């Protein structure tokens, strides 16, 4: 997610790195990377119920935080802006889809494919910039996109599975990033507004359909102290990395943010293979090799001193 100021003009981009900003950026991406460890614990609820709780507890936490950040007035003012509310209604639905796919994938043992989605995301965002914003792409960027397409084709042909989780994660978050990029609202205020928009849906879902697999009881999940703690943690797990990212984006260069974005999917990849033992055969490894090669080209082009290259929104607020 692109970090924007909560109010006022955009901050001046730093020309050199700030150690605190680097630490905040790395912390944000590291937290996003280890989120699968947390979501693995929610096996007592269906993924969509977990997302509903995530909306509720994230909203309550952000409503408590915004006054201390001096942005509660901006949050209230935005509720009276029809255009902002229309766009954020769409982004709320898109990020809700992203959360659902990701949490389902974690619970069903598809962390590896989810990490592939977040590796794909920068290239997907670059393609969206070309299609929707008219941004010009260099030859190396086109080559990187073609290599990513080859990786998807390899996943279908060699592995024998359509990578719908990876494409769902990359597509939903890429679209989310594009819509948030064209909407003048900061990360925390935007997420609070999206959560408020999603609140009736989340509460309604839990009341009408919630936790059928856990006993057809809307209070399912509150039957133990550990489960209550996990449900309450959905708020901080969503807000903490976002706030760290918003802080970092004001204090370090966009090029650095663009490189650090690979921390999160790299951690997910390592967790999938080494902690959870998800299979990584030759076909899957070839898919990742193509993606990594494409990202190497993309990063090289991004860092070349021949004028600025647009950097897409990079925070995996999905997770």
TrEMBL record:
Sorted UniProt keywords: Cell membrane, Membrane, Transmembrane, Transmembrane helix, Transport
Domain EamA positions: 21-152
Database matches in NCBIfam families: rarD (TIGR00688)
Protein's name in the database: EamA family transporter RarD
Annotated PANTHER family: ACYL-MALONYL CONDENSING ENZYME-RELATED, SOLUTE CARRIER FAMILY 35 MEMBER G2-RELATED
Transmembrane segments: 21-39, 51-72, 84-104, 116-133, 162-179, 191-211, 226-247, 254-276
Coiled-coil regions listed: none
Species for this entry: Futiania mangrovi
Compartments, as annotated in UniProt: Cell membrane
GO cellular component terms attached to this protein's record: plasma membrane
Organism placement in taxonomy: Bacteria, Pseudomonadati, Pseudomonadota, Alphaproteobacteria, Futianiales
Organism superkingdom: Bacteria
Family note: Belongs to the EamA transporter family.
Principal location: membrane
Xref: Pfam families: EamA
Topology with respect to the bilayer: Multi-pass membrane protein
